[in-house]
């Protein structure tokens, strides 16, 4: 695996390179860059498998670097110390990220996941547009869903429900479904604030599509789909529905 590190602090560059070397001896560092123009030139020339890209650079941002790349087909992993902003923003836009100071175990997990991913056309500009739009408090937040062979930009309000399928999550819409390669917990953490209710270990429901809780103690949707409510979540579901005036 060939890697480029874009980081404006020398100590941070060396620390990341050292950890990568300990994780996997086959990882080759193809170069370092500290600013936007040098990073763009290095990545376009080296064409690495993975770029570790710091968000905040002295003369710009990692997003500026991303916009300047020519048909890059490798993987981007953002590095940031800004946890509150990073987690939500990156999950909605489907970017890989790792928080600083870097935890070797978390980095090892990220490298392992990247090595398993199928090579496919990643639409970085599309992902970046979602990240920027949500950051600017877009009234209709969007989310990027990655399937095995493609990626889709979806309006959050159009998601009817999500269902766990092991390590995957199946999204249901009016006339289609998408199976993504993230688990339900991943999506629950970012969708709950948009009126989604976790009714069961395997189910997450958009409250705007809920009709009622029926006599069988199932959540009944407007399309008459019935979603189970687990005994453990019954009190919390009732509380959330009351808060939403359902």
Description of the molecule:
With about 250 residues, this protein is of the alpha/beta class. Helices cover about 35% and strands about 30% of the residues. A 5-stranded parallel sheet has the order 2-1-3-6-7, sandwiched between helices. A 5-stranded antiparallel sheet has the order 12-11-10-14-13. A hairpin with a 2-residue loop joins strand 10 and strand 11. Helix 4 crosses helix 6. The chain is elongated and about 65 Å long. The mean pLDDT is about 85.
Question: Descriptors for this entry?
Answer:
246 residues, alpha/beta, Rossmann fold, OB fold (Dihydrolipoamide Acetyltransferase, E2P), elongated
SSE topology:
Elements lengths: L1 E5 L3 H14 L4 E6 L2 H11 L3 E5 L1 E2 L2 E2 H6 L7 E6 L2 H11 L2 E4 L4 H13 L7 H12 L6 E5 L4 E5 L5 E5 L2 E5 L4 E4 L3 H8 L4 E5 L2 E4 L3 E4 L4 E4 L4 E3 L5 H10 L3
Parallel strand pairs: 1-2, 1-3, 3-6, 6-7
Antiparallel strand pairs: 4-5, 8-9, 10-11, 10-14, 11-12, 13-14, 15-16, 16-17
* Name of the CATH superfamily of the largest domain: Response regulator
Q: Mind telling me the C-alpha Rg?
A: 20 Å
Strand order of the largest sheet: 2-1-3-6-7
Element string (H = helix, E = strand): EHEHEEEHEHEHHEEEEEHEEEEEH
Which percent range fits the helix content?
25-40%
Let me know the number of strands: 17
Rounded mean pLDDT score: 87
Apparent shape: elongated
Count the domains. Answer: 2
Assign the CATH architecture of the largest domain.
3-Layer(aba) Sandwich
- CATH class of the largest domain, please? Alpha Beta
Percentage of residues in strands: 25-35%
* Total of DSSP H or I helical runs spanning 4+ residues: 8
Low-confidence stretches: none
| Largest sheet entry | 5 strands, parallel
How widely separated are the two ends? 52 Å
CATH topology of the largest domain: Rossmann fold
Find the structural class using helix and strand composition. Answer: alpha/beta
């Amino acid at each position: 695996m060939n890697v480029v590190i874009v980081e404006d602090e020398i100590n941070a560059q060396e620390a990341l390179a050292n950890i990568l070397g300990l994780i996997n001896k086959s990882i080759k560092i193809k170069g370092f860059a500290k600013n936007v123009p040098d990073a763009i030139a290095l990545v376009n020339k080296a064409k690495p498998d993975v770029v570790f890209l710091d968000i905040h650079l002295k003369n710009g941002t990692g997003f500026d670097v991303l916009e300047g790349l020519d048909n890059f087909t490798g993987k981007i992993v953002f590095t940031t110390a800004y946890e509150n902003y990073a987690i939500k923003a990156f999950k909605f836009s489907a970017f890989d990220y790792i928080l600083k100071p870097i935890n070797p175990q978390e980095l090892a997990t990220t490298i392992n996941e990247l090595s398993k991913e199928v090579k496919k056309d990643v639409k970085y500009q599309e992902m970046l547009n979602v990240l920027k739009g949500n950051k600017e408090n877009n009234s209709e937040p969007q989310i990027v869903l990655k399937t095995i062979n493609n990626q889709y930009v979806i309006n959050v309000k159009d998601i009817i429900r999500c269902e766990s399928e092991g390590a995957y999550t199946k999204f249901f819409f009016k006339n289609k479904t998408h199976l993504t390669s993230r688990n339900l917990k991943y999506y629950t953490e970012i969708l709950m604030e948009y009126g989604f209710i976790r009714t069961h270990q395997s189910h997450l429901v958009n409250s705007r599509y809920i009709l009622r809780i029926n006599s069988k103690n199932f959540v009944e949707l407007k399309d008459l789909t019935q979603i189970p409510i687990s005994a453990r979540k019954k009190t919390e579901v009732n509380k959330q529905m009351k808060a939403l005036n359902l």
